[in-house]
Amino acid sequence: MSWIDNDSYDEWEDNWLDHIPPRHRAKLTRSANKQKRPKVTINRDLEEMIASLAEENDLVSSFETTYTRNMDEKHHERRWLLEALSGFYHDQMISDVLHIVKGGKEANVYCCDAHPLTGLPHIAAKVYRPRMLRHLKNDSLYKEGRFVLNQEGKQVKGNRSVRAMRKKTGFGQKLDFATWIMHEYKVHNQLYQAGVDVPKPIANGVDTILMAYIGEPHYPARTLSDTSITPVEAPLLFERILENIRLMLTLNLIHGDLSAYNILYWQGDIFIIDFPQVVDARKNRSAFTIFERDVVRVCQYFHNFGVEADGRTIAAEMYQRYLDAEL
Ligand SMILES: Nc1ncnc2c1ncn2[C@@H]1O[C@H](COP(=O)(O)OP(=O)(O)OP(=O)(O)O)[C@@H](O)[C@H]1O
Ligand SMILES: [Mg+2]
């Protein structure tokens, strides 16, 4: 399988290891368990892993999409996209990948046909690029107070994965990355359940998040930064975004990268997106600074459409009121 299901973290970790090429994995397991692990277990694991890799290869090779059909077999995007999405195809979540919506610095977003079982017409697949692995060093500001989470959002303590992440081994970095995606998805889900205006989350994998696609297939919703809103709707949208920010605060959550670039606009509605930087206000010492920056950026955008609001004052008042915090 190419994604995380609801099994326990340890089970997930073992599935996840199946994605690593045999030689690489043998190295990982050897270094992690040099003394404890008997040779015979490694051999058994290796057999299971080879079987699992063969199964995954079958899954990937039996998956073709409108978007990748005419790409060269060796095209790197074709390879990682099919690998990232074939599991979702075989699990009847998506039935095709139509086109790329946006190629970002860290992830590409693709428009997919949704499988009828999902009840949605289209799904947006946010697929992180492999080279994203290199950018995880600078996330300490956001990660403070964040723990390694399993798929159900429970904290994982003291197992070999956590140690590997601390040591920043290659294996640890990959786990770190997978944890990052889980965090993004978990927060996304939590916000959706709480009624925050976000696209409906559908599923996640080790490098992918699926969510409802906003817009028409060839006319994706634009970000606010890319849209001209009317002076009549500006104050209404502004108030709605503040409502969303308040709602997040009641969950102790701060977006961390909120701006007109991470808010989609579609037919009078707004959808907040992009949650890897979300921080827990109770656990991060820079929480207020991060929060204030979010609010100020939103106010700056709406200022261009005639809405007068002092972001810093609004941020301080909201923070004190909803978090009952001393500033
Ligand atoms: N659910 C969605 N429906 C339609 N389009 C979407 C959806 N989610 C994301 N997009 C498009 O993909 C772009 C990138 O998404 P997102 O902001 O989550 O990723 P990112 O890694 O931060 O990319 P960037 O570096 O461009 O900000 C968005 O600006 C938007 O155009
Ligand atoms: Mg973004």
How are the elements arranged and paired?
Layout (H helix, E strand, L loop, with lengths): L8 H9 L4 H11 L6 H23 L14 H15 L3 E10 L3 E8 L7 E7 L11 H4 L16 H8 L2 H25 L6 E4 L3 E5 L2 E2 L2 E2 L1 E2 L9 H18 L2 E2 L8 E4 L2 E4 L6 E2 L6 H17 L7 H13 L4
Antiparallel strand pairs: 1-2, 2-3, 3-5, 4-5, 6-7, 8-10, 9-12, 10-11
Give a short overview.
It is built from ten helices and twelve strands.
What are the segments in which pLDDT stays under 50 over at least 5 consecutive residues? Answer: 1-10, 19-40
Spatial ordering of strands, largest sheet = 1-2-3-5-4
Helical fraction: 40-55%
Assembly of the depicted chains = single chain
Measured by DSSP, the beta-strand proportion falls in 15-25%
Q: Which CATH first-tier class of the largest domain would you pick?
A: Alpha Beta
CATH architecture of the largest domain: 2-Layer Sandwich
Bound molecules: adenosine-5'-triphosphate, magnesium ion
Order of helices and strands: HHHHEEEHHHEEEEEHEEEEHH
Q: What number of domains?
A: 2
Q: What summary fits the major beta sheet?
A: 5 strands, antiparallel
Overall 3D shape: globular
CATH topology of the largest domain: Phosphorylase Kinase, domain 1
Q: Provide mean pLDDT, rounded.
A: 81
Distance between the termini: 48 Å
- Radius of gyration, in Å, reads 21 Å
CATH superfamily (homologous) name of the largest domain: Phosphorylase Kinase, domain 1
Structural class: alpha+beta
Helix tally? Answer: 10
Number of strands: 12
